[in-house]
Amino acid sequence: MRILDIIRRAGRSLRSAKARTLLTSSAIAVGAFTLTLTLAAGNGINAYVDRLVKSNFDPAELIVGRDKEVENTNAPDSTPREYDESIANISFGGQGSMQLKQIDDKDIRTLENLEYVERVRPNYQIDARYITRPGQKQYTLSVQSYNPGQKPELAAGTLPSKDLTDGQLVLPQGYVKLLGFNDAADAIGKTVDIVAQQPFTQEAIQQFVAEGGLTQPGTTAPEPKRQVTTYTVAAVSKPSVTALTPTGLPVLLSTKDGKELYDFTSTGTQQYGKYLYAYVRVQGAENEKVANDAKRKLKAMGFTVMTSQDLQASLQTIVNVLQGLVVVFALITIIASVFGIINTMYISVLERTREIGLMKALGMRSTSVAWLFRIEAAWIGFLGGVIGAGVALLLSLAVNPLLTEQLSLGEGNVILMHNPVQIAGLIIALILVAILAGWLPARKAAKLDPIEALRTE
Amino acid sequence: MIELADVSRVYGKKQNQFTALEDINLAIESGKSVAIVGKSGSGKSTLMHVMSGLDRASTGTIIVDGQDISALKSKALDRFRAEKIGFIFQSFFVQANETCLQNVLLPLEISRSSPSDRKRLATDALEQVELADKAATKAGNLSGGQKQRLAIARAIVSQPAIIFADEPTGNLDSATGDKVEQLLFRFNKQLGSTLIIVTHDQDLAKKCDIQVHIKDGKIVNVDSKVGRKRTQS
Q1: ipTM value of the model?
Q2: Which of A91, A99, B27, B190 is deepest in the core (most CB within 10 A)?
Q3: Residue A51 burial class via C-beta count within 10 angstroms: exposed 0-12, middle 13-18, buried 19 and up
């Protein structure tokens, strides 16, 4: 018998038992539904993480530090360790602090001198007091040095392809009205002041004491040293849906200005000339192989390195673990439905004993008889897959706009991202599972003796 | 030509042995109509099964049109049945949930005949048994006589050399039974197919060219119409 005829006959005999077929395949459909949604959610979240990393990190930049925690994406290691000069305390507002080895200016120079390194940007922890303009109030701010690989979305102005010009800054949109500008375009070319404060250094205190500060009554603590720097607004940034900025948008300065401000605020502290990590741009490191090559070389020099691919992978690990869990549950559903198929197929074989006998008497091969039942099972798998995936698709159509809004993903980005190849693969896999489920009943059918099967009454 | 030489069929093993057929020797010329007559349990059905290749003889040889079917492998035997044999059963065994046309197509699908010819052959066969207008009707909705005519259409559609009919009128009233008989003998003459009817109906048996009487697995008597006429003259 030709396979096409077998497929047609199998389909017909399923149609003659519609309710049973539908009920059996609905068990598979539940699994298919869950798997389709899980895969879609995985696709969507991974695409989101991808966008997130791409818009926040320069793919050619490596994060280079001295401490192994730089590479650690799990909970930090809390074992006490031996002190050395490079260790600094990083405090977490009342949650205690973490001791991390830092890289220093000497390391930065070493890195800068490597032939494959294009640029090194130390991670300056700039501690500015406030931002203001003559005649306006003072507002808090966070400051970062500009990273050309991480272009912010702009409300006005333009950005240079490399670094910002010294003396210029990128102002977040939120400050435009507060600082008395009419709108974003109005702020371009105007100036703002950033005020930084130097902590007490040993020298400052010694000087204060030497001047008799403590002996004379009525004197207060020494005035901390303050520095006012005036910058021109080069561009106004606006919030991006994929920006990783827990503190709101930072004010961006040129690398040199950033370093000056950092030096001013950290002079005399244990932070001076030390950085948790530096962004090292390696030529061609968008390519994972080049990045890993550089990583290996830097590690040989005692640095700890994280590539943007590592970062992406670490973010995706969480997603993958969750996805894996749901997939396991869906697979359990499918295993349960396999027993349903086996049961249905055994009943089908029993019901059609005479039909099987007749077909065998008419010269149908046992293998053809077996395939008739396997394909009947395959139809059930196909039906279940199509129903499950179809319902999942419909649900996604309904829910995606809501989710996009709730998670503020931005226009055109969806969290349930369906991939036709994946769905087709899933349905094919379910068909194969169903064929396997139908294997034993099909064998029973194939082994029937036509004379016995045709013995009437 | 069907030739059986020393054919025996034994079921079971050792103490439980049961001999259904014993030393059957029989030769049937092509195109004849043959009745295998005997009481139930006489072995007449077993004889039909071994001659049609549904069952295998324990010993002896069965040669059909020069081919020793007792030596065939199961695949070749399936093919032999698909190409050479048509079956008609007492309980019809038509597929109730399929249409008449689909029922008649089954043997053609099994013998892998070319899809372009199938429809024509099946429609022809339905016309022959006067069921052409029922082609799209579900077989389950037919009357008993119609079902048996459908079974005849299914048996003749692949133009078999031999048609086996196991009590073809056993479940029918005499009027519809007569019609079925007429059809069977017509195709026997018209197509030249050898017709072998297993029956205990003496009237039906008498209409055949040859009557083979079976008792306890042995042939007790072979009557030939032609032969009898000759002795009478």
Answers
A1: 0.92
A2: A99
A3: middle
